[in-house]
Amino acid sequence: MAALSVLKRLCSVVLFVSQLYVFSGRGSLSLEHSQPKAQLLKEEPLSSKVPPTTRTTVSEVPAYMSKCPSNGLCSKLPADCMTCDPNKSCVYGKPVSFECKAKDQVFCVDDLHQRQRNFTISMTCQYCWQLPPSEYVCTNSTTCRTVSCPRLRHSANCTVLDHVHCLGNRIFPKMLYCNWTGGYKWSTALILSITLGGFGADRFYLGQWREGLGKLFSFGGLGIWTLIDVFLISVGYVGPADGSLYI
After folding, report:
1. Number of domains, the chain
2. Is 116 found in the same domain as 71?
3. pLDDT of res. 127
4. In which domain, by residue range, is 168 found?
5. Strand 95-102 to strand 72-73: parallel, antiparallel, or no bridges (unpaired)?
6. Is 13 part of any domain?
7. Given Cys at both, which of 11, 77, 181, 236 links 81, Cβ 3.0 to 4.6 Å?
8. What is the DSSP code (8-state) at residue 244?
9. Domain assignment present for 16
10. What is the mean pLDDT of residues 204-229?
């Protein structure tokens, strides 16, 4: 009986040791498996980062380069292609010389076809807004009435031509008379008034449909209205309904 009890205790000890070994092996196995997962979690943010794209440096071309000829005479360059030292103490209307310099990326030559950067230009001493109308262009308004008394004016923005040199701002405001056309011809209106004026064709042509209907249903005012319209159109008193001028 004593030997049997000793054998039972020995079996229980062996069983306990085997269970302890299994549990310790699983723990190490789970620890070994958990370590790569932790490493993956740590490495994922690094691998998920997208490397910044390399930006290619592109040299920007200035806007004025579209107006500047290559290897042309420096004295013939447009005003936007050079910078000059202003001499505002000159006498108005008198010739004056200015020391100028070609802008960056602008290449020009002298009379001997030698590369040049600094040069002298001659011009008349006057501000840009004092130039004659032939040396600048202005915006035109199509909303003001050209036929009115007194004549109406509108505010326009004027820009000096490229080859013209002057003092001050090259873009300036100016009050101009309303002077625009909608495509109506004076000769066509007069012919319609003489031939078909009794049916209001002249008024319909000029866009005055109310007066045209009045002439149509009154047979030209029994001829009186027709004669009056012929006179008014011939002297230019009656014009297009949109307020524009005849061609």
Report:
1. 3
2. yes
3. 93
4. 130-177
5. unpaired
6. no
7. 77
8. P
9. no
10. 87
pLDDT reading at 237 higher than 80: yes
Structure tokens at 74: 């420096």
User: 202-215 pLDDT, tens per residue?
Assistant: 999 999 989 889 88
Question: 120 with 166, same domain?
Answer: no
Single residue among 105, 125, 145 that ends a domain in this structure: 125
pLDDT in tens, 92-126: 999 999 999 999 889 999 888 889 889 999 999 99
Bridge partners of 137, per DSSP, are 159
Alpha carbons 82 and 68: distance in angstroms, whole number: 9
Residue 221 lies in a domain: yes
Single-letter residue type at 74: C
Query: Which residue is it, tokens 């056309």?
Result: 181
Q: Which pTM does this prediction carry? A: 0.56
Q: Quick check: helix, strand or coil at residue 177?
A: strand
121 falls within a domain? yes
Q: Which residue has the higher pLDDT, 141 or 22?
A: 141
- Tell me how far apart the alpha carbons of residues 11 and 14 are, in angstroms, rounded to a whole number: 5
List strands edge to edge, sheet with 95-102.
82-84, 95-102, 118-124
